[in-house]
Fold this sequence. Notes:
Blueprint (H helix, E strand, L loop, with lengths): L5 H48 L7 H11 L3 E5 L4 E5 L7 E6 L5 H13 L5 E6 L8 E7 L1 H53 L15 H55 L5 H28 L9 E4 H12 L8 E6 L5 E4 L1 H20 L5 E9 L3 E8 L6 H5 L16 H12 L3 E8 L2 E9 L12
Helix pairs in contact: 1-2, 1-3, 1-4, 5-6, 7-8, 8-10
Amino acid sequence: MKINTLSGRFLVLTTVFVVLAEMLILLPGLANFREDYLLTRLERAQIASLALLTTDTMIEPDLEQELLDNAGVYNVVLRRDAARQLVLSSPIPQPIAATYDLREEPFWRLVRDALVVLVDPENHVVRVIGDPVQKGGLVIEVTLSTAPLRLEMIEYGLRLLALSAIVSVVTALLLFLLVRRLMVVPIKRVVAHMAAYADAPEDARTIIAPQARIEELRVAEEALASMQHQLTASLRQKERLAQLGQAVAKISHDLRNILTTAQLFADRMEDSEDPAVQRAAPKLMKSIGRAVNLCETTLAFGRAEEPPPKLAPVDLGALVAEVIEGEQAPASAAQVDFVTDVPKGLMIRADQEQLYRVLSNLARNARQAIEATNQPGTIEFGAGQSAEGWWIRVQDTGPGLPEKARERLFQPFSGGVKKGGTGLGLAISAELVRGHGGRLDLVRTDATGTEFRLTLPRALELTQAELPG
């Protein structure tokens, strides 16, 4: 198992925590064992001394030594009243090295004293003071060796370590298996689905089906599934767009040839002496020219690109008037009036042809929406400038956009409003405006009408040399 995996790192952390837990169990256990050991020696010594105090005769030296050996001490001093009495005694092999009063020992000092005994291999004689049991006196003191205490502490520590190690290993193994079952396996499943989806993103069978029981992992699986669905749909749409781009390129080539022929006939119309024909011929020539140019740039859209704008001074009022003239359709079931609120002489810096396409598309959509109601309506163009830049407003009194169209308004083949529409118009318009560094936003749409707002940044402001005149 590799250490840099989730399972490996969890195993290392579990081992570290197990060692820390064993230390936290071992140290207090040794301290308690030492204290119990010393209290047991005090209790045995008290029993031996009380048995001796019940008789007035002298005790034999051999019996006294036997009592001391059974208690595991050298001397026993018992204070029953005010007097301090040496009840049992034997020769001490060396001077007393330390005195421990078990009546006042805090826990941290018990731990410290236990460690001192454990790490010191030398045998020492120590004095231990404590309270007699069953009120058998005021104070009892004994002297004893530390060697037997150290040996029993080592044996107890080894037994405690073995038991805690077994418990810790079993606990760590159960935790490891549990975490692997609840986390590692689901994560590996997610990774496997991601790898399978990367190999075949068009195959819907590779999309993950959320089934994790842990809430966090289930949220991650649901987010992954949602992303995969969106990506698959986007890939399919891009594939259709690529196919459509090839088809449109062929159609545009043929349509350009047809329009070129029409342009030749329109040139001949300019020689006509009819005043109406002379007035209409330039407009017809300009419209056909725009159509030819649009055909030539269709392939650019198929590549998801638009040519960069060719910025030049534009008289916005004249451009709006040209858009209105081009959108004034013959008499229809609905009367559409155009209103202009553009300051006279307002000059902006933009690509005139691209801006014409944007405004013409917005006006055409508004006109078609009003005509669909068979009721009269109004389309208004407004414009102005602020500290940030210029703004252009196009609003109508139509029926408003349906909810379905608002959700994907500026997405190609998704934001179409009228039946049979492709939704390309607004998508192209938004892209053209972004190419100018600006934005095209839907301000409002309801039963009283729709309003779009086009903004261009002040960074595109005209220089003095570019102003007309």
